[in-house]
Write a structure and sequence with these properties.
By secondary structure, the chain is mainly α. The chain has one domain. 62% of the residues lie in helices and 0% in strands. It contains 8 helices and no strands. The longest helix has 13 residues. The radius of gyration is 14 Å and the shape is globular. The N and C termini lie far apart (32 Å).
Length: 121
């Protein structure tokens, strides 16, 4: 992620999502059998710095839609099982955009949030 400082916009979103999904890892194939959860898509911690930069990137509405098309919300929700860092960002994105709320529901991500909340209790 040290190279991500120079990236912006779509390039940053693509790089961040690939990193969180583990696609930048050389040895992920070896770890594929060690999944902790069924249908896990996020394999790295979503840090506060990454969250702040993503929040700045998602100020533009076209970046929000691009992020949604790239299944960014699915990755953020799955990252909650590692660290709850993304929860305020997900909440803000859903509060500001009704189309995202519909997509969030269609992708069954509310159920994933409920699973996360149950795991925390």
């Amino acid at each position: 992620m040290e190279n991500a400082d120079s990236l912006a916009g779509k390039e940053y979103i693509d790089y961040l999502l690939a990193f969180l999904r583990g696609k930048k890892d050389q040895g992920l194939e070896q770890n594929a059998g060690a999944k902790k959860r069924k249908n896990q898509v996020c394999f790295h911690e979503f840090t506060a710095e990454e969250c702040a930069k993503l929040k700045k990137t998602l100020v533009a509405e076209d970046m929000v839609y691009y992020f949604n098309v790239q299944e960014g919300l699915r990755v953020l929700v799955d990252s909650l099982f590692i660290t709850p860092q993304a929860l305020p960002l997900v909440r803000d994105l859903l509060d500001e955009n009704h189309k995202l709320q519909d997509d969030f529901q269609r992708q069954h991500l509310f159920e994933a949030l409920i699973d996360f909340m149950q795991a925390q209790n």
